[in-house]
Amino acid sequence: MPKSVPAGFTIDHPATTPLDPPPSHLQLRAAQRFAPVAIHDGRLHPYLVTRYEDARAVLGSDAFSTDPSPRPGMPDFPSWREGQPQGPRGFFKSYDEPVHSHMRKALTREFMVKRINAMRPGIERLTAELLDEMTGQGTSADLVEQFALPLPSLVICDLLGVPYEDHDFFQQRAKVFVDLSASPERVVQAQQELGEYLDKLVARKRAEPGDDVVTRLAEQVDSGAISARDAADLAAFVLFAGHETTANMIALSAVALLHNPDQLPALLAGPQEAANAVEELLRYLTIVHGGVRRYAVKKVEIAGITLQPGDGVIVPLGLANRDPGVFGDPDRLDLARSNARRHVAFSYGIHQCLGQPLARAELQIVLPEIFRRLPKLRITVPLEEIDFKQNTFVYGINTLPIAW
Ligand code: HEM
Predict the structure, then answer these.
(1) Residue nearest atom 19 in ligand 1 by C-alpha distance
(2) pLDDT tens per residue across span 11-65
C-alpha cells in the first residue's frame, strides 16, 4: 500500500484547457514518477504511471492483468464495476491470455492493413457524399451529427454487415457504455439489448451469409473455432469501438486544427504529411483519456518500485503522450513532429487497438478532405463553450457548431 495518497484525481478537462490532459494528472507527474492515487472514495490506492517508458513497461509486461472479474482491487471504472461480474454479456470484459489471443485471432484478418486499404475508395466516396449533403443544406451545421458520427458509423456497419437503419439503436447503447455516470442497471440493460441484437444477426448470417465480418464470425462458429455467444460479443465490441472513437477524433481534431491554423498547411501538403498529421493528432488528443487499467498478478519491479500481486495500476495514455523526455515541447501540436508515431494513443502490448488501421485510414482521408472542401471552416462558439464530453471513458465532443 502506498504511503502518501494525493487527492483530487479526476478525468475531467477544464473548459479553459480542454485539449490538454486533466490538470490532476499533470500535477501527479510533476510530483512523482509512479504516483499513488486514491480512487473509489478512497477504497483503492492504485499507482498512476506518469512516464512514457514506464507506461510501455507496464502495458508490455505479462505481470499485469486486464481481467477485472476475479479480483477486487482492479482499479476499474466507474467504481461500481470493481470486482463485479461484467453483467450478462462478456464483451466488456478484457480477456487475459490464452483466451485473449484466441478471441483476438477471430478478428485479426479483418483489420489487416491490406484489407483496410481496399476500403479506402469506399471511405473516400462516403466522405464526399456526407460533405455534399452537409454543405447542400446551408452554410452552418453540427459537425458531430452531420459528419463526424455518421461517417465511422456507416463504415463500421458496412464492414460488419449491420443494417445502418439501426444506427440510432446501437449509437444510444454505445453512449451508455462510455458514460461513467450511467447507472449499473442502464449499462447492464444496454449490454443485454445489444448482445441480443447481435445474437440474432449472427444467427441470420449463418442462414444467409454476406461478404462481411459478422458472416465470417458466423463461419468460425460453424467450424467450432468460437461459440455463437463469442461471435456476438466480438461483433458488439467492434460496433461499439468503431463508433465512439473515430467520431470523437474527427470532432476534436477539427477543434485542435482550428485553434492551431498555422498547422493546416502540413495537413494538406500530401498523403505522407497527412498520415504524420494524424499520428500527431492521436498523440496530442489521446481520446482514451481516463487511463487504461491493470493489476499485477505477479511480483514485478517497475521504475524501482516493487509491485505485489493485486496492486492496481492506472496508465493515463495522455500523460505518456505528453512526456517531455520523449516528445520535445509536448504540449505543442506539431503536425510535422518526426517521432509522432511513437505515441501510445492506441495503447501498447497485446491489447493495443486492433482497429487502428481502420481508424488511421478514416482519419487520413477525412481530415484533409474537410479542410480542402471547407477552407473557411470555423467554429461558431468560443472554445470554453464547446460541449466537450465530461465523465466519459472516451473523450470527445457532443455537438460542434460550425460554419463555412
Ligand atoms: C482513433 C480511434 C481509436 C482509438 C484512439 C482507440 C484506442 C484503443 C485503445 C487505447 C485500446 C486498448 C485499451 C487497453 O490497453 O486496455 C483499444 C483496444 C481495442 N480497439 Fe481501439 N481505438 C480506436 C478505434 C478503434 C476502431 C475503429 C476499432 C474497430 C473497428 C477498434 C477496436 C478495438 C479493439 C477490438 C480493441 C481490443 C484489443 C485487445 O484487447 O486485444 N478501435 N483501442
Answers:
(1) 353
(2) 888 888 999 998 888 888 877 888 888 888 777 889 999 999 999 999 999 999 9
Alpha helices in 60-166 (DSSP H): 99-108, 113-118, 120-136, 143, 150-160
242 CA distance to ligand 1 middle (Å):
8
Closest-CA residue to 2 (of 315, 320, 314, 311): 311
More confident residue, 41 or 97: 97
Q: Do 191 and 91 contact (CB within 8 A), yes or no? A: yes
All three cell numbers of 220: 468460425
CB 346 within 8 A of CB 282: yes
- Contact between 342 and 55 (Cβ < 8 Å): no
When mean pLDDT is compared over 12-16, 107-111, 169-173, the highest value belongs to 107-111
* Residues forming beta bridges with residue 140, ordered by sequence position: 403
Interstrand relation of 292-296 and 64-65 (parallel, antiparallel or unpaired): antiparallel
**Residue 3 carries which DSSP code?**
S
CATH of domain 23-85+95-403: 1.10.630.10
Query: Which atom of ligand 1 is nearest to 159's Cα?
Result: 30
Count of H-run helices and E-run strands, the chain: 16, 10
- Which ligand 1 atom sits closest to the C-alpha of 360? 1
Burial 292-309 (b: 16+ CB within 10 A, else e): bbbbbbeebebbeeebee
User: What is the three-class DSSP state of 50?
Assistant: coil
User: For residues 222 and 211, is the Cβ–Cβ distance under 8 A?
Assistant: no
CA of 345 to the centre of ligand 1 (A): 9
How much distance in Å is there from the Cα of 262 to the middle of ligand 1? Answer: 30
Q: Cβ contacts of residue 3 below 8 Å, gap of 6+?
A: 36
Written as nine digits, the cell of 29 is: 507527474
DSSP 84-115: ----S-STTSPPPTTHHHHHHHHHHGGG-HHH
